[in-house]
Amino acid sequence: MTAKLIDGKATAARLNALLATKVAEFKSQTGVSPHLAAVLVGDDPASAVYVRNKQRSCASAGMLSSLHQLGSATTQSELLDLIAALNADASVHGILVQLPLPKQIDETTVLDAVTPLKDVDCFHPENVGLMVQGRPRFLPCTPAGCQYLITESGFETAGKHAVVIGRSEIVGKPMALMLVQKGRGADATVTIAHSRTKNLAEISRQADLLIAAVGRPNTVTADMVKPGACVIDVGTNRVDGKLVGDVDFAAVLEIAGAITPVPGGVGPMTIAMLMENTLTAARLQTES
Ligand SMILES: NC(=O)C1=CN([C@@H]2O[C@H](COP(=O)(O)OP(=O)(O)OC[C@H]3O[C@@H](n4cnc5c(N)ncnc54)[C@H](OP(=O)(O)O)[C@@H]3O)[C@@H](O)[C@H]2O)C=CC1
Ligand SMILES: Nc1nc(=O)c2c([nH]1)NC[C@@H]1CN(c3ccc(C(=O)N[C@@H](CCC(=O)O)C(=O)O)cc3)C=[N+]21
Ligand SMILES: [Mg+2]
């Protein structure tokens, strides 16, 4: 059996086209153009690529974007000053601080400084708390992109065993907490695995839905996958200049029921969800 491919690139393109019509309608009703401000500190080439992709997506959705680039020697207080200025700028609706940040800067302090209504990554504790309580203001972009692909592929999550490998604040933890909520694309029985987990293969083999968010190639091998499982590969790893996920794709393709490729899976969906959140942020900050 060969797994069905879940095409994140095509799904994201459809969502982006739909978003463009929603943005046009919002602009004609309010006269306001949704605006995402991206903050890029340092000279990490991968970060520069992602930020450029986000700006391109803003343009194609009819939204404004601005890039605030700071040098790798930027101090935390300089960065906090920039965030304060963006928080106070009524023409800016969403603020994205691209991670990772240079070593001299404490990520939590900086992310907490983004005003919650402009927190389109859904990293602020107020927004994480609202999501966990089942009354989200924003959904975290990568988990929301995964959930959308799972639902759209026709996989019924209710009552199923979902195993999330990874417990980061950006992917694994919010993904698990979304899958355990009540409602569509959720109601799963969730296990969270991480680097201290014992017998990972035994646990992952029990997964009807397996989500890998580790950052290490070939973490999920064919023997770790239940036949017919839905496998979502969040990993984005560069190996010999090539982009690969966390899943041994060729081998797992023969076992799984459905699988996301890398590239062309979760990555484009993350950006589509960021665009959705930017429109949501503009709505929340605009009188109607
Ligand atoms: N496509 C997209 O849109 C996005 C892709 N990514 C990619 O997803 C991957 C994960 O990102 P992120 O969550 O930020 O990474 P982190 O490094 O923050 O987290 C990785 C997680 O994996 C766990 N882990 C590490 N090694 C193992 C192992 N051998 N077995 C089981 N668990 C393990 C860690 O455990 P512990 O907590 O114990 O350290 C940690 O919880 C990366 O490749 C990243 O590039 C990230 C964001 C968006
Ligand atoms: N504040 C913040 N928010 C983030 O959401 C965030 C971040 N920082 N730092 C880095 C990670 C990583 N991330 C990706 C987004 C898109 C692709 C993506 O579109 N990938 C394409 C390929 C792109 C390529 O070729 O390099 C794909 O998988 O098809 C990948 C990874 C968001 N992140
Ligand atoms: Mg740091």
Key traits:
288 residues, alpha/beta, Rossmann fold, six-stranded parallel beta sheet, three-stranded parallel beta sheet, 10 helices, 11 strands, 40% helix, globular, binds NADPH dihydro-nicotinamide-adenine-dinucleotide phosphate, binds 5,10-Methenyltetrahydrofolate, binds magnesium ion
Provide a concise account of the structure shown:
The chain is α/β, with parallel strands linked by helices and 288 residues long. Helix content is 40%, strand content 16%.
Describe this structure in words.
InterPro entries: Aminoacid_DH-like_N_sf, NAD(P)-bd_dom_sf, THF_DH/CycHdrlase, THF_DH/CycHdrlase_cat_dom, THF_DH/CycHdrlase_CS, THF_DH/CycHdrlase_NAD-bd_dom. This is Bifunctional protein FolD. Residues 6-121 form the Tetrahydrofolate dehydrogenase/cyclohydrolase catalytic domain. One of its GO terms (biological process) is methionine biosynthetic process. It is a single chain. This protein folds into two domains: 30-115, Leucine Dehydrogenase, chain A, domain 1 (Rossmann fold); 141-268, NAD(P)-binding Rossmann-like Domain (Rossmann fold, 3-Layer(aba) Sandwich). The protein has a six-stranded parallel beta sheet with strand order 1-11-8-7-5-6. A three-stranded parallel beta sheet has the order 3-2-4, sandwiched between helices. A two-stranded antiparallel ribbon has the order 9-10. A hairpin with a 2-residue loop joins strand 9 and strand 10. The chain is an alpha/beta fold. The mean pLDDT is 97. It starts with a strand and ends with a helix. The chain has helices at 8-30, 45-61, 76-88, 107-113, 125-132, 141-152, 172-179, 200-204, 249-252, 266-284, and strands at 4-5, 35-41, 64-70, 94-97, 161-165, 189-193, 209-212, 230-233, 237-239, 242-244, 258-259. It has ten helices and eleven strands. It binds NADPH dihydro-nicotinamide-adenine-dinucleotide phosphate (NDP), 5,10-Methenyltetrahydrofolate and magnesium ion. Residues 142, 165-168, 170-172, 193-197, 200, 213-216, 219, 234-237, 266-267, 270 line the site of NADPH dihydro-nicotinamide-adenine-dinucleotide phosphate (NDP). Magnesium ion (MG) is lined by residues 101, 103, 105, 107.
